[in-house]
Design brief:
Length: 114
């Protein structure tokens, strides 16, 4: 069973930056496309960014040009660099396979507020 552990969230002012990390276990990670998702209060979970095994990336329009997804397959980690953060980026952020598996980690809270 794949385990997902997200970290790196916190409180940041608008315009600030955060770098999220996701540690994974299980052999599934090394052969899977991965994604970062987020869920804001009262909203459905949405895909923010994805990365293929070969490193091709895709982003939601709302974060394009501000967020960068990357991965270190040797260390079983996925990262999300978030720059120029806005209040609407406030959410709990999760990583998972893309398309996602039904099992989620605990997520990491990102709050953008002055």
């Amino acid at each position: 069973q794949v385990q997902l552990v997200e970290s790196g969230g916190g409180l940041v002012q608008p315009g600030g930056s955060l770098r999220l990390s996701c540690g994974t276990s299980g052999s599934l990670f090394s052969i899977s496309n991965m994604g970062w998702y987020r869920q804001a209060p009262g909203k459905e979970r949405e895909l923010v960014a994805s990365i293929t095994i070969r490193g091709s990336t895709d982003y939601a329009d709302s974060v394009k040009g501000r967020f960068t997804i990357s991965r270190d397959i040797a260390k079983n980690k996925v990262f999300l660099q978030m720059n120029s953060l806005k209040s609407e980026d406030t959410a709990v952020y999760y990583c998972n396979r893309f398309p996602y598996l039904p099992s989620w980690g605990q997520g990491t809270q990102v709050t953008v507020s002055s």
